[in-house]
Amino acid sequence: MELSSGSFWAPLVLLRDLRYNSTIEFAAGGGVTMRQLKRVFLILAMSLVAVQASGQEGCGKMLLLPLHYGEMQIEEDDRAFLNTYYYCLQRPQSEEAALEEGIDLTWVYPKALPSEADVLSSLKFDKLKAWADQNCETYLAQGSTTQLTRAIDNALVRTEPKIGEAYERCVKSTGVSCYAVPAGRDVVGLFVKWAPDGPGAAEPEILSASATGAMQPLDMLDKGTSDGTKAPVKSLEHLKVPRTGLLRSFLRTDKAGDVLFEVKTSADPNGCSETVGPVVPRSRVKVVRDGDNKPNIKLGRHVWIDVENLQAWIEGLRDQNKLPKPDAKVGDLVPFIDGVPLVGIHPINHGDKPEIEEESGAQVHRLHFDIERDDENKEEWAHLLYLGKKLSFSRPVKVTVGFENDETLDTLITGEEPYAAHLKVVPGDLTLIGLLLIGDGLFLFLYLAWKTDVIRDTTVPLRPDNRSPFSLGRTQMAFWFFLVVAVYFGLWMVTGDKDTITDSTVGLIGISAATALGAAFVDANKTSKNEKTQRVAQVDLSKRRKEIVEFLDQKRKEAVESCEKFKKTLNELTKGGKDTLAAKEDEIKRAEDLAQGLRQERDQIAQDDKAALAAKDEEIKKAEDLAQKLEQERDKIVQGNLSALEAKKQEIERVNENLALLRRQIDFFCIPAWRRFLDDLLTENEGISFHKFQIFVWTLILGAIFVFEVLNKLAIPEFNATLLAIMGISGGTYVGFKLPSGTKQSNSTDQESTR
Predict the structure, then answer these.
(1) Helix, strand, coil % (nearest 5) of the chain?
(2) Alpha carbon distance 712, 703 (integer Å)
(3) Residue in 181, 158, 157 with CA at minimum distance from that of residue 169
(4) What is the pLDDT of residues 382-434, one digit of tens each?
(5) Are 575 and 557 contained in the same domain?
(6) Are 437 and 502 in the same domain?
(7) Residue 211 lies in a domain
(8) Domain residues for 563?
(9) What is the number of other CB atoms lying within 10 angstroms of the CB of residue 476?
(10) Quick one: 455 and 488 in the same domain?
(11) Into how many domains does the chain fold?
(12) Concatenated DSSP letters for 668-697?
């Protein structure tokens, strides 16, 4: 089997023959072995994509005429791509041939030759052909997939419904079929499409073609306007219909009449026919622009909206009895953004006369609106600017106009890029300033809160890091202050409204300030500073938490070793003291026994032996003096041992206290910073305090409601008196419970100072 590598159907034929041959001969010679199958199947896969896209590719050509005559308003990149793509696909050999195929070279030249804008037309086309020889193959390979699909889809969204219907029928058709394509009030196109039945099918030839109600431009110049009868189109006879279809333009001979095309080909002798009616002017929104000629909508700015055939649409509603009132007119229209009517915003130029006239004859009203927010449309703006939808400075929106009874015009501003207006949620020029001010203020506050005692309670014992704990009252006051300031500034940036602070907001700030002041007053009247100094290990707070814990654990080990040494010394002192006292007691007993024996000996001496009695009394006195001296020495030993033991016991107690503080420090630094912060706010005397907990919970709940209402309604909420009373009671309870807590703590301090 021989196979031309340039054939469209080559990979499909190749797949068929692979079932029967292990090697296939190409026209250029050589064989394909199994090692080359990977490449073969890659070519096959690309071809299958091309087959799938071929229907879309061919039928998309019918969109060129509506693009050329301004029936479709699409993005310039899509317009340039479609014309360049079909130029590369058709490769016409002259500008006239390109025009016959519906290709608008004014969009092809800038795409292919961006630096050749001033070159003469004849030379420019020669340069275009040279560019095509080098680039079209790559351009078609890149464009025949997603980019082509996107460009066609974008065009179909914004074109005449009849063109979209013809395109859908074209994609599904088989064999030879023909379509009439309206391209404006004066122009209509004939598109003949051929879908091959299989590989190797010959291109069909047009045997005859006729048009009723339309003629080709050259025929009209030669013969004048036809009377509406059928006229043959000689210029189409014997032309081949390529796989990408054949497109020709015609001028209507009667703008209000139908156009009928009939075509017979060698592939279908019975032929095909297509009829299209007159173009009915469409009523729709075409353009939205602000004062800078950009498609932006922003509060406090003016917007111009161009509407085609507005008066005809209003009269149609009047005939159908769909107007909100019988005498409704242009001045009663309001803008609709994403389906939301901006009630109360009507055109400034509310006259019925259109401001401009387009070349195609469609009347265009350029409606001028002053976009403002007031009590009448406050809820609508809250829905549109709701920040919870998408956190962004602007977002694409659908824009149209209509009456307040929800009767709206069709629109080309669909809300999908690139055919969308942009609602400026937050003005960009103020956003940076606002974020800098609020961010700098918050950063400064957080720095001071971390480094200083601005929201810390300086009248209670230090934390294990030698810092005062955070004060719940001062933290609550700071919370409401920054929340209200940020919300107030944000609402002003979004809505421009400077009167947004409510009475209940002032009440909340007052309650939080009173709570903080009351707590400070109670703390200031305590009898002492509540032991601001404690024997704790000094740590470097700039180090990581793990390093601090390791340092404290080393200190704890050292303290444990010291404690063990003191206990050992205490035991030695206790044991040595007991041995010394026992020896001394023995000496005392011997002295007392000696004295007792001497007394007995004295009793046996005759009473008249005065000299013997005196000598014995002297011995007895010496024995008693010795016993007394020994007792005194024993008492000194006991007193000395007791003092030494007491000193060692006190050292042991001090080490144990340091161990307890070190364990507390270790436990403190083992938990993350946010846990320490919560412990400061909620705990008291080593446990969660309910009077602190309830004011903390109420503050969080009201703060969440506050933020949600602002995002949802673009307004600061109004809390009722009952809710404010609950907040006041919570604050009063918090301050009240500090009174007995402070007294108890002061008493304990006094007791320690007297010990």
Answers:
(1) 55, 15, 30
(2) 14
(3) 181
(4) 778 775 555 567 888 999 999 999 999 988 888 777 778 888 877 666 677 77
(5) yes
(6) yes
(7) no
(8) 548-669
(9) 28
(10) yes
(11) 4
(12) HHHS-HHHHHHHHHHBSSSSB-HHHHHHHH
